[in-house]
Amino acid sequence: MIALIVAGGLVLAMIVFGFALQVTVAGDAPSKAAAEPNAHLGTKEQRAGARRLINERGYDCLIVDWMVPFVFGEGWTVYCNRGKYAFEIANHGGRWSVKAN
C-alpha cells in the first residue's frame, strides 16, 4: 500500500514538473519572438560605420534600415534607404569590401 502511494506521488510530481516546464518554456517564447524583429538592426555605431563605409565607396546610403550578419564569415548585408538598396560588407583579412546587390 505504501509503495502505491509513493509511486502515485512520484507520477503526480512528474506531471506537475512537466507542466511547470512547459509553462516556463512557452512563457519564454513570446519575449524571444518580440525581440527578434529588432535583432538585426545592428548597434547605432555599427549602422553609422556601415553607412560611412558604403558612402566612402561612392554608393548612396542616406540611412541604414537594418543589417543582417553573415552566417559564415565576417560581414553584413546592409539595407539602406527604406530597403531600396542592399549592400554586402565583408572583411577580407582586415580590408573591408562593399558590394552592391
Question: Could you please describe the fold and organization of this structure?
Answer:
This protein has a four-stranded antiparallel beta sheet with strand order 1-2-3-4, covered by helices on one side. The termini are far apart. The chain has helices at residues 2-35, 44-56, and strands at residues 64-69, 75-80, 85-92, 95-100. The chain is built from two helices and four strands. It is globular and about 30 Å long. Residues 3-7 and 10-36 have low confidence and may be disordered. With 101 residues, it is α+β, with helices and mostly antiparallel strands.
In short:
The chain has 101 residues and is α+β, with helices and mostly antiparallel strands. The chain has helices spanning 2-35, 44-56, and strands spanning 64-69, 75-80, 85-92, 95-100.
The residue fraction in helices comes out at 40-55%
- End-to-end C-alpha gap: 74 Å
Class computed from helices, strands and strand pairing: alpha+beta
The largest pleated sheet is described as: 4 strands, antiparallel
How much of the polypeptide forms β-strand, as a percent range?
Answer: 25-35%
Q: So how many helices?
A: 2
Order of helices and strands: HHEEEE
**What is the approximate shape?**
globular
Number of strands: 4
Radius of gyration over C-alpha positions, nearest whole angstrom: 25 Å
Strand order of the largest sheet: 1-2-3-4
Structural descriptors:
single chain, alpha+beta, globular
